[in-house]
Predict the structure.
Amino acid sequence: MLSLEQELKGNEYPGRGIVIGKSKNGKYAVTAYFIMGRSSNSRNRVFVEDGQGIRTQAFDPSKLEDPSLIIYAPVRVLGNKTIVTNGDQTDTIYEGMDKQLTFEQSLRSREFEPDAPNYTPRISGVMHIEGGKYSYAMSILKSNHGDGSSCVRNTFAFETPLAGEGHFIHTYMHDGNPLPSFQGEPKLVEIPDDMEAFTNMLWTSLNEDNKVSLFVRYIDIATGTYETKIINKNQ
């Protein structure tokens, strides 16, 4: 099990990241999503609540340049499913699963972002809570070692998550030019019971210059009720 704190502190630009898991006491389904930015356009964002989910919006609308890859709904809720992604594929998954497609099938129509030469991976997660039972899955759609003509699709399903365990997936291995895509399986990390402490650890561990916004949600597996925390660098 890796230290999520050290993973973040040791990587000045993991890009966007998703954490999903179960709290140590076994009571909560937990997710976190953060965004970072190197350009002024990427940094000019905040998370705002939108129904049961969230969306990104420009902090200063007058400075918004290209909204195509930065304005989207990272989190949406479909019944007993919570969808978390780093782009507008949130909507693709929501619409697909609403038509009885699986998580994996819903993403077949999508691939990595068209932002050559980085070809930023599309990372996605879905949490399913029903009848006191909880499972989750994560996906990454990435270029084949930076070759934009080939898409690699990996899906990881966690059917009976163990208490205190979670998984972390992010877009970039580290800073670079072009930015190297995430490699390997989602990283095994610890998920604590204390939402406040977890949120603070994540925010303080992200690179001060590059971090933009953070979303954390703890969902009570027995009742489906949840608590959400949002931190925006732009206030």
Observations:
- The chain has a mean pLDDT of 97.
